[in-house]
Write a structure and sequence with these properties.
Elements: H1 2-13, H2 16-24, H3 30-39, H4 42-61, E1 64-66, E2 69-71, H5 128-164, H6 166-181, H7 184-195, H8 200-208, H9 213-226, H10 230-237, H11 242-279, H12 290-296, H13 306-333, H14 343-358
Antiparallel strand pairs: 1-2
Helix pairs in contact: 1-14, 3-13, 4-5, 4-13, 5-6, 5-8, 5-9, 5-11, 5-12, 5-13, 6-9, 7-8, 7-11, 9-11, 10-11, 11-12, 11-13, 12-13
C-alpha cells in the first residue's frame, strides 16, 4: 500500500510543468541549472555570438600596440593614412562614397564586394572603415572598464551597507542618494571636460567612479534579505566571522543580481560615452570614438549619410547585444522563471508516466 502511494505520488509529480522542470534539474547543482537555463535563451545566445563576432572583427582589423609589442591587423589602412579621395560613382557629386556592396548580381546589384574603402572616406581622405574600427575599439574598452570599476565599487558599498546596517548603512546610502540626485549627463560632462584629453582609459576610469549607485542599492537590498536567512545563522553558530559570512555565504547567493546589473550597466555605459563624445565632452581628437565620429560629421547628414550609418550600427548592435545577454542572465538566475514546455518534453513525461504506472 505504501509502495502504491509513493508510485502515485511519483506519477503525479511527472505531470505538469513543475514535474517536468523538477525532473530535468534533478541531481544538478545550482550553477549547472543556471547554465542550462542561460544556453536555452535564444536571444542571449544570438547576442553572445553577434557580440563575439563584433569584438573579433573590430580588434583584429587594425594594429594594436600592447606592452611594447605590435599586433598587426588585416586591414591595410590605419587612422593616420590619407589615400587619395575617391570621386567616381558618388551620388550627387559627393566625395568619399563607400565601396561596400552587399547586393548580389542576380538581384540587380553590382555583386558582393568589399572594395578599397568599404565605409567611404572623410573630408580629407582618411579611410572611414579604419576610423569606425578604432572608434568601436575605444567604445568597447570604455564599456568594459566602466562595468568593472562600477561593479566592484557598487558591490562593496552595497554589501557593507546591507550587512552592517545602522549608522554605516545610513552614511553610505545618504552619500549614494546625493550622487543619484545629480544627473548622469552633468557628471559625465564635467569629467569629460577635465579628463577627456587624457585618453579613453582615464575617461572610463573616472566615469566608473560615479556609475555604481544603482548597483549598490540593489546589492544592499539583496544583503538585507540574505543576512536574515537560516544559513547565515548557522554560519554564526559555527564560529564564522563577518568577513567569511559576507564572502563565503551571502555574496555567492547575490551573484545573480550583481551579474545582471553589471551587464545592463555596461550597455548604458556605451550610450553614455557616445552622448558625451557627441556633446564634445568625451573622447577628443586625435583619438576616435563612435560618438565623436557622429558628432564630427553631423553637418554632412543629408549629403553623406553613410558617415552616420556605420558608427550608429555598431553603437546599436553592441548596446542591444549586451542588453539581450543581461536579459538571458536575469531569466537564468531567477528561480521563478519557467521555461516554455515543448512538445518533446510532454511526450517524454507521458512515457515516464506509463513506465511509473507499470511499476505500480
Amino acid at each position: 500500500m505504501i509502495f502504491k502511494r509513493k508510485s502515485a505520488q511519483t506519477t503525479e509529480s511527472l505531470n505538469g510543468e513543475n514535474g517536468i522542470s523538477n525532473h530535468e534539474t534533478l541531481g544538478l547543482s545550482q550553477g549547472q541549472i543556471v547554465f542550462r537555463r542561460f544556453i536555452r535563451h535564444r536571444g542571449a545566445m544570438i547576442a553572445i555570438f553577434f557580440l563575439t563576432a563584433i569584438i573579433l572583427f573590430v580588434f583584429s582589423s587594425l594594429d594594436i600596440h600592447l606592452l611594447g609589442m605590435t599586433y598587426h591587423g588585416w586591414w591595410k589602412y590605419s587612422i593616420e593614412d590619407m589615400p587619395e579621395l575617391a570621386f567616381a560613382n558618388c551620388p550627387g557629386g559627393s566625395i568619399g562614397c563607400p565601396t561596400l556592396n552587399l547586393r548580389p548580381s542576380f538581384l540587380g546589384g553590382a555583386g558582393l564586394r568589399f572594395g578599397e574603402h568599404p565605409f567611404g572616406q572623410d573630408d580629407i581622405g582618411h579611410d572611414y572603415f579604419a576610423l569606425v574600427m578604432r572608434g568601436a575599439q575605444r567604445s568597447l574598452l570604455v564599456t568594459v572598464v566602466i562595468g568593472l570599476i562600477a561593479g566592484v565599487i557598487g558591490t562593496v558599498v552595497g554589501a557593507i551597507s546591507g550587512f552592517y546596517r545602522g549608522w554605516i548603512d545610513a552614511v553610505l546610502m545618504r552619500f549614494t542618494d546625493f550622487i543619484i540626485t545629480i544627473p548622469t549627463i552633468i557628471i559625465g560632462s564635467v569629467i569629460g571636460y577635465h579628463f577627456g584629453n587624457l585618453g579613453v582609459l582615464f575617461l572610463a576610469f573616472y566615469l566608473g567612479l560615479f556609475a555604481w549607485t544603482g548597483l549598490s542599492r540593489l546589492v544592499r537590498g539583496e544583503f538585507l534579505t540574505l543576512r536574515e536567512r537560516e544559513f547565515v545563522d548557522a554560519a554564526r553558530v559555527a564560529g564564522a566571522g563577518n568577513r567569511r559570512i559576507i564572502f563565503k555565504h551571502i555574496l555567492p547567493n547575490a551573484v545573480g543580481v550583481i551579474i545582471v546589473s553589471v551587464t545592463l550597466l555596461m550597455s548604458g555605459a556605451i550610450l553614455l560615452e557616445t552622448a558625451l563624445s557627441y556633446l564634445g565632452f568625451g573622447v577628443v581628437s586625435p583619438d576616435v570614438s563612435l560618438g565623436l565620429l557622429i558628432s564630427k560629421y553631423q553637418d554632412a547628414f543629408q549629403t553623406r549619410p553613410w558617415l552616420f550609418w556605420y558608427p550608429g550600427f555598431f553603437i546599436i548592435s553592441i548596446a542591444l547585444s549586451i542588453n539581450f545577454i543581461g536579459d538571458g542572465l536575469r531569466d537564468a538566475f531567477d528561480p521563478r522563471q519557467r521555461r516554455k514546455i515543448t512538445r518533446k518534453d510532454r511526450q517524454q513525461a507521458r512515457v515516464m508516466k506509463r513506465q511509473a504506472a507499470k511499476n505500480v
